[in-house]
Amino acid sequence: MGKYYQEEFETMPLEEIRKLQSEKLVEQVKHVYNNVEYYRNLMDAKGVKPEDIKGIEDLHKLPFLSKADLREAYPKGLLAVPQDEVVRIQSTSGTTGKRVIAYYTQDDIDIWEDCCARAIVAVGGSEKDVCQVCYGYGLFTGGPGLNGGSHRVGCMTLPMSSGNTERQIQFMMDLEASIICCTPSYAAYIGETLKEMGYKPEDIPLKAGIFGAEPWTEEMRHSIEETMGIKAYDIYGLTEISGPGVSFECEEQTGMHINEDHFLAETIDPETGEVLPEGSEGELVFTCLDKKAFPMLRYRTRDLCVLSREKCSCGRTFVKMKKPQGRSDDMLIIRGVNVFPSQIETVLLKEGYTPNYQIVLDRENNTDTFDVYVEYTPEEGDDVVKNITAREKKLQERMKTMLGINPKVHLAEPKSITRSEGKAVRVIDRRKLH
Ligand code: DLL
After folding, report:
1. pLDDT at position 95
2. Most buried among 4, 5, 112, 427, using CB within 10 Å?
């Protein structure tokens, strides 16, 4: 395996990418208009016909699709092929009552797995590697997506799924896993367990990790890289658009290349829907160019990020997206101030704490209460207990500087905050219950 999985596409000159996208878009719009009544109605309401879309320059004429549309069309209203052609479904966890069911033809699965294979090759993966997949398997796209990609690359694949951390470590050591795929919060937990078991970074056979499915900071990246002695790469995706591998990081580690031959990206102003120029932060919107069973056109992800076409040293020409800070609906509004959990993670890791934290919000006398629970490390035990108030106060001040409002910081005993094996739950918002 060389440097790329599909060099012809990954390094395609921009003009050719645009031409390919235009051709695919014209076909895709016809396919959706003819087969999805729900979207046809949206287009009719906007007065747009498939003939009006002659290339990507006409993309802006198409209506958006949102999570609300998906809910309204649930379960099969956006299915664009006869069910006989569908070979698989995947789904989101639906913990917030917003379950999405995505459908795939065999071609759709092939595209998706190719995208994941590109991500694995971009971190140096080849048939010589042992790839340990500890994203959840089943309805969640993480396990099946990376599993498929790993097979395509020819790695020896360990289909571990998430959880059972001691068993993960045993397989990792005994089979000399060289690439690990899981959420960054689970990677931090595995790293912590390895350290407790006495393993040093040089004892760990891993060389790279492919971490995504939740927001994580640069500080978290450095912390994982140090503990495990690996390079930690980001991967992004969402069930609606296929799963992991919509975009992936290369050796430069400065953002994720969007697989533009399959997914057309835009950023828009989340308030007005206006398309923003590359380089300004906005809500990511994706159009699936060749996925047939569940072809989202202009799907609003609610993820906030910046696109950049700066030349990448890896040779890939695909546009890059910066790490999303979180979904627009993950943003907390506390006493009127906008707060992203990732800002708290940054402060904690800079101050030498672990990435184990929890934010608890409540309401007292009509005012928001804002508590942050953070663990001290076992090594600093006695020292922290003696100086606990001073330590809490210092951290509180650092957070105030970062956020503009004052949380109440509580230093808690090591291991008192539940570890995550999948997507971490960082926020408990009790305000909604009142
Ligand atoms: O999380 C797919 C996935 C699996 C991606 C494994 C990467 C690795 P969903 O469960 O549908 O799909 O959640 C999608 O997770 O809209 C983002 O808000 C968030 N997300 C995914 N990857 C990242 C990332 C999978 N690298 C939602 N950084 C997306 C930040 C991410 N947020």
Report:
1. 60
2. 112
